[in-house]
Every structure is written in C-alpha cells, then in structure tokens.
Amino acid sequence: MQQFLNVTLTGLGQGAVYAAFALALVLIWRSTRIVNFAQGAMAMFTTYLALVVIESGQSYWVGLAVALVAGLVLGAAIERLVIRPVEGGPELNAVIVTLGLFVALQALAAILFGSTFRSFPAPFDLRGFTVGGVNIAFTANSIYTIVAVVVVMLALVALFRFTDLGLKMRAAAFSQEVSRLLGVRVGRMLTLGWALAAVVGSLAGLLIAGGSLVFPGYMDSIIVYGFVAAVLGGLDSPGGAVVGGLTIGLLLSYVSGYVGSELVALAALAILVAVLLVRPQGLFARTAARRV
Amino acid sequence: MTAGTLEVAGLTTSYGPVTALDGVDVTAERGRITAVLGANGAGKSTLLRTVSGLVRPDAGHVRLDGVDLTRAPAEDVARAGVAHVPEGRGVITELTVEENLRLGALLGSARKRTDRRLAHVYEMFPPLAERRRHDAHVLSGGERQMLVIGRALLTGPSVLLLDEPSLGLAPRVVAQIFGLLRGLVDDTTTGLGMTVLLVEQNARSALSVADVGIVLNLGRVVARDAAATLAADENLRHAYLGF
C-alpha cells in the first residue's frame, strides 16, 4: 500500500511536467500544424541560462524568471526567423527545420555550457514527508512542481477563454484566412503562440531539472514522453494534453515501480503505438481523422 | 466623392500561367448593390479575393475613396473598412456563435459599445441569439450566412463584399438574406447606407435585388448595365447567365 501511494504520487509529479511539455507541443501544433521537435532543446537551453544565473549567486527565482523570459524571446525569434520562411511549403520542411534546430541547440549548449553533468538546485525540500511513521515519497518540491504547472494551465485557460487576445489567437489557429479578413494580424498571433509555447516548455524543462542533473541531452526522454502525452490527448486539445500528461506520468511510474525501470521507454513507445492503432485522433480531439 | 466608393481599375490576377482576371474595371458606390455575375470560373471569386488582399494582382488598382489598397495585406484592407464574406461562409466552427461575432466586433471602432452592437445583431438575427453559447457548427446553412453577415457588419465596414451568399440555401432563405442586404444598403434610419459588391452564380435572384450588374466571362467584363436592363436582355441571359 505504501509503495502504491509512493509510486502514484511520484507519477503525478512527473505527469505534471509531461503535461506542461505536451501543452507546449499542442500550442504550436494548433496554430501552425508543426510538431516542434526542438521544444525540448529550447527548454534545455533556457534551463542552462537559469543555471548560469543561479550559479552566479542569484536566487532560484531570478533564474526561473530569466529562463521564462528567455523562452519567450527564443520562441518568438525562432518562429520569425526560422519557421516563417518554411511556412506554407511542404509540411516536411518545417519538421526537418525543427529537427535541425534540435541538433543545433544541443550542440550549441555543449559548446557554451559544456557537456558534463551539472546539478541543478531545487527551490524546495527534496525529502519526503513522514506521516504517522510512514515515509511518503512526496516532497515539497513535487508540490511546487504540480502547483506551478496548474497555475500556468489556469493562466492559459484564462487567456484563451476570457481575453480578446486569446480569442484572436484561437481564431488565427482555426482559420487563418477568415481571421485575416476580420483584421486579425495572424502573423503576430503565430509568433505569440510560439513564444507562449516556449515559455511553457521552459517551465517544464526547469521543473524536471530541479534537484536533478542537467546535460545537453537531459530533455531527450521528456520529449518522447511529452509527445506521447500530447498524442494521447489528441494534439489539438490543451485539456487533452494535461490529462494525457498525467496519465503517462502515472502509467510510466507504475511500470517503473512494479515492472522495472529499464522498461519505461519501451512502455512509452507501446502506449504511443497503441493509441495510434486504436484511437489515432486521441482521446479528446474533435476532428475525426488525422494523417500520421 | 461619397464615402464607400470602391474603384477597381484594370485589375489583372493570375494563378501561375492561368489568367483569372484580365483588366477588370468595377466601380461600386454607396447605397447600391453591385452584382458581379458569370459562370463558374469566370473570375468572380478571384475579383473579391484580389480586392480584399488575399490574392495579389499582377496589374491594376483597387481604391477605396481614393485610398490605394492594391497590394495591402488582407488585415489592412479589413481595417480600412472592406468586409469580405468568403465563399463557403467562413464560419469558424470551433468557436461559439458569440465568439465568432465578438471577433468581428474587435475590429469595430467603438469597442466600448461591443455589447450593444452585439445586441443589435442578435435583434437582426434572432436564431443567432438563441444559440449564442453553442459552437457554431450546430448552425444551419441559413444561420451560418446570418452569422457571417452579422460578423462582417460588426467590423463597421463601409464596403461589404459577399461571395455567393445564396449558395446551398433554400429560395425562401435567399429572399430573406437579399431582403436584409437591401435594407442595409438603403438604411433610411441613419442615411448611412453601405456599399455592397455581390458575387453570384444565381443571376436571377441577384439581379432582382441589385441596382447594377456586371457580367464576367473568362476574366473579362462582357456586359455592364442597370440590373433591370441586364435581366431583360434575352441574348445575354442565354449566353452567360443561364436563365
């Protein structure tokens, strides 16, 4: 029972991060129909920036702020400078460009920050709570992770549901032509969409790094899990990304806890294949079919 | 010059090697419905798409009250007061009815009065008011046409471009929509009627509501006259209008 509780709580904490990462993928997919394979590398890069700031003696929170602002700028710059020129061309071009970015950013990070493992501080305690003499593998840092993800999700929901800007962004995502005819500056909305996605991705990168080790490839497995979560949720649905992320987090945690941690990556792949076979449109997508 | 005069001069547009519009001149004036008629492929939709900035012309001019809009992007043409309702209606089905309308209202000049202006549209189209909170995909064809016209009006345009508003609608609904257009153009309460440029394959209905008609064939203007005169010209009707 104690193990079940621990495995479940660990899964929820991990799932929150996958959810944030999946959300970043969904934000970009919805507006530009591009799966951003560079998402993880972008997050890795901004996490390194935060690490530099923190190691220079600033607090964790200054580092967090720097990472999020850097994510915003990086996302906007990448959309404007790299993605815009290939938009409207064959879909594969954009995919290849994001893959190229992924490789380039990882190499650049290795050059700038070194390719050795470096430990990243956690803002809160990493020891589990003890309730009635039983150790629970749920730390103050996990609570912070979950709260941070929930706050960002609620902020995004509020933006998209209740503001004029959010309405314009959604309209631009659903129909560029109609939006332009209504005076919406679609180009700006796409840039903003990438920027917001990069902020959410940066947060995910920072949260997963907290109390752990970073190196240029540390986000690689998160990209896979985040992608599986996004596909499970239906790529088009922000709510689906959240549910997908938590589901993947829990499932992988059970696999790791009861079957063996070496099978986690295989399990993620099995889930991906199963989803694409049984319900390729995902659990929450409204559109009936998708080309894979 | 009255506000809302749309002048198209020598407009030439091509898609690759295919010339869709070939030196077309059209003037649409305030208080009038100008109908552009012709068979499928005559260049009617291309005319509207070039005017609204979705397609770039090879040559010619588009002017609104003397202001050149020829190569302006669609966003800027919309902001200048030209509302284009595209063929296939342009309802964003993933948004609710009210969100679709609000999107139009965001461009209108008096943002503070958005709620009042929305209320006015709901008054004009009661079926929309009943479904304001529903996703727009639940609307029928006629209701969708109401939604896009209402949304276009909320942008506060001086010129309304309509592409095949009668397509797929029952004759009774078509009459209703055209009656509404007539009301917008004649607007006697404020004296601020609009300019309407209407593209239609359904020539008979269009000529019954329009003031002026222009007939396109293979990208060129082949006839231009008062709507009643065109409707009475039997040869022209047989050759180009199919009724």
The name of the CATH superfamily of chain B reads P-loop containing nucleotide triphosphate hydrolases
Shape assignment of chain B: globular
Which oligomeric form is depicted?
heterodimer
Low-confidence stretches of chain B are none
CATH architectural name of chain B: 3-Layer(aba) Sandwich
**Biggest β-sheet description of chain B:** 6 strands, mixed
Helical content of chain A, roughly?
Answer: over 70%
Largest interface: A-B, 18 and 24 residues
Overall SS class of chain A: mainly alpha
Query: Which runs of chain A of at least 5 residues are low in confidence (pLDDT < 50)?
Result: 288-292
Describe the structure.
Chain A is built from 11 helices and 4 strands; from the N terminus they run H-H-H-H-E-E-E-H-H-H-H-E-H-H-H. Chain A has helices spanning 2-32, 39-55, 60-83, 91-113, 140-162, 164-174, 176-181, 186-209, 220-233, 238-259, 264-278, and strands at 118-119, 128-131, 134-139, 213-214. Chain A has a two-stranded antiparallel ribbon. In chain A, strands 2-3 form a two-stranded antiparallel ribbon. In chain A, a hairpin with a 2-residue loop joins strand 2 (128-131) and strand 3 (134-139). In chain A, helix 3 (60-83) packs antiparallel against helix 8, helix 5 (140-162) packs across helix 6 (164-174) and helix 10 (238-259) packs across helix 11 (264-278). The longest helix of chain A has 31 residues, at 2-32. Chain A is globular. The model of chain A is unreliable at 288-292 (pLDDT under 50). Chain B is an alpha/beta fold and 243 residues long. Chain B has one domain: P-loop containing nucleotide triphosphate hydrolases (Rossmann fold), CATH 3.40.50. Chain B contains 10 helices and 10 strands. In chain B, the strands form 2 sheets. In chain B, strands 6-7-8-3-9-10 form a 6-stranded mixed β-sheet, with helices on both faces. A 4-stranded antiparallel β-sheet of chain B has the order 2-1-4-5, with helices on one face. The radius of gyration of chain B is 17 Å and the shape is globular. In chain B, 45% of the residues are buried. At the A-B interface, helix 6 and helix 7 of A face helix 2 and helix 3 of B. Chain B: Residues 6-243 form the ABC transporter domain. Chain B: Pfam families: ABC_tran. Chain B: Belongs to the ABC transporter superfamily.
